[in-house]
C-alpha cells in the first residue's frame, strides 16, 4: 500500500506537557481566545472590577450567592448602592417564615418611627425563606435551609438592613450563627417573580412558598397579607 507523502507546510506538533508548551505565556494564550457574550462579561469583571447586569435584572452569570467563595460586596455608601434584593445567610434553622417576617417588621419600624416623611420609609415587598420540605413531611419538623431572600423597595433601605444585620449574632439559645448579608443574584421584585412563578413547590404548606407584598410592609402595617409566588402541589417532595 502506498503511503501518503508528508505535508512540508504542516505546523509542528508538540505533545501536551512538553518543554515547548511550558514556555507558552498566558498572555499569548489569552490573545487567541475570543471573548464574547458571557465570557467577555466575566473577563471584564475580573480585570476591571465592573459587574454588568442584563435588562431583566439578573446578573449574566452566577454571582456567588450559591457559593461562599465569590460574593458581591455591598458599596461603601448609600449613594453608590443600587442593590435592593439581599440574600440573608446563616439563619438559625429553627426560624420560620413568621419569625423572619417579624424581625423585618421590627427592623423597619425602628427605622421609620423617626423618619421625617413617608417617602423616606424603609419597606420590603418580597420574602422567601426556603424550607426543608422532606424533613417536614417525614419527621414533622420545621427547618429552614439557612438562607432567605428579601427585596426592599429602595437601595437605601437595603443598605440600612445590611449595616444592621451583617455580622449580627442571632439571639437564640441553640444553633447560634453570625448573620451574613450579600447581594442576591436576581435584583428587583419583578425579576424575583419571573424566577419563581413557574417553579413547582411540592410541599404540604403554602407558607413555604415565596411571598410578594403588593402593599409594601413598613413595620406599621403588619396586618398586610402577601400573595404566594409559584405553583404549589400538595404532597411529598421528590428525592433529588
From TrEMBL:
Domain of life: Eukaryota
Region spans: Disordered: 1-57
Molecular function GO terms recorded: nucleic acid binding
Biased composition (Polar residues): 1-10, 18-36
InterPro entries listed in its UniProt record: Mei2-like_Rrm_C (IPR007201), Nucleotide-bd_a/b_plait_sf (IPR012677), RBD_domain_sf (IPR035979)
Domain Mei2-like C-terminal RNA recognition motif: 84-197
Protein's UniProt name: Mei2-like C-terminal RNA recognition motif domain-containing protein
Organism: Lupinus angustifolius (Narrow-leaved blue lupine)
